[in-house]
Amino acid sequence: MATKITINVTNNSTSTQNFFFFQQPAVYSGGPKVYTNSLYSQTLLPYATSGSVLSFTMILQYYAGVQQQVDPPQIGQPSGQLGAIQPIELTPASGGTPTKNTTNMTVDPSLGLSVPVSTDGPQAGSFRIVTPVYDPVLMNYSAGSAVQSLTGAITLSNFVTAQPNTNLDCQPIIKFYVQTGTYTAGTVMNFTSSSVGAALCDATPGFTTFNVSYNPNGTWTVKNMALSQLANGSRGLLEKSSFTTELNAAAQIAEVLNEAGTAVVSTGLAANFLRPVTVTNLTAPGAIIRNRDYQVGPVDGRHLGLTCTDVAGNTAVFD
């Protein structure tokens, strides 16, 4: 039976929150730019008034995935329709039993991935996608690691722009995150900014269930669970460890002014003011409009003229 990873989220704040789930990007050979998609997003009422718990379950099966790029990937936009997937195995450590770790991508007569076979090339812990010869001026393709939810839906979790006639090695990382905001499944998001202050659910040590609480002060409490033998001899879930994220002491109060710089639209927190600037804990997120120009900076400090490129929940990105 395939292993399942379940993340249960409880909203202990006093207001309705939007939550989205995403995975830490894989390590790709050659160091290309890596894009990340949201895996799931949903609205959740406060637990105290609703008793609601949001659950997201994934099948721990590795998938290679490819898709056509209609446009270059952009944050906040769908990455495209998933063109082809194949369940695939990771390369074992030296001396291990060979696995079916390599698939061949085709583009003619249509986009596809072959049934995986065993090869010696990929490094341990990775799988390989062999790309064919094609003209990237005419069409580009995304290639990377996909995730399957319990409903059967498969999303390209993270990917790179494939290069023709190359071996693309992908080493998945089974660390997942929960953050406030709204990114529907298959939408490109900014991993660097979204992972700051997010709840980390690390399945690497063998944890299979994570009970995540969003606290009133904006921190998270994560309880790591694993299937173990109980005191009565039966098997069940046991809490193995837990932690609460810390408020970012280094965060600075950020002001978002209107374009003219004459009025404060919202305040929030920013780790720094290097572009792109991510402002979290916005006091008036509804007043921030995507693609509108603002002045962003520290209180009593220099403000930059920036455009809001994304706003989700109480977090906005300016560039």
Report on this model:
The chain is mainly beta. The protein has two domains: 4-176, no CATH class; 252-318. The chain has two helices and 25 strands. The termini are far apart. The mean pLDDT is 91.
Amino- and carboxy-terminal Cα gap: 46 Å
Q: What is the string of SSEs from the N terminus onward?
A: EEEEEHEEEEEEEEEEHEEEEEEEEEE
Task: Estimate the global geometry from the Cα principal axes.
Answer: globular
Oligomer: single chain
Number of discrete helical segments = 2
Q: Helix amount, in percent?
A: under 10%
Beta-strand content bin:
over 45%
Mean pLDDT: 91
Radius of gyration: 21 Å
Number of domains: 2
Low-confidence stretches: none
The biggest beta sheet is recorded as: 10 strands, mixed
What structural class results from the helix and strand content? mainly beta
Number of extended strands = 25
Outline the fold blueprint.
Elements lengths: L3 E8 L5 E7 L3 E2 L6 E3 L2 E5 L2 H4 L3 E16 L14 E4 L14 E5 L5 E2 L13 E4 L9 E10 L4 E8 L5 E5 L3 E6 L7 E2 L1 H4 L4 E4 L6 E6 L5 E10 L5 E10 L7 E6 L6 E7 L6 E3 L13 E6 L5 E9 L2 E4 L1
What are the salient characteristics of this protein?
3% helix; six-stranded antiparallel beta sheet; 319 residues; mainly beta; single chain; 25 strands; 2 domains
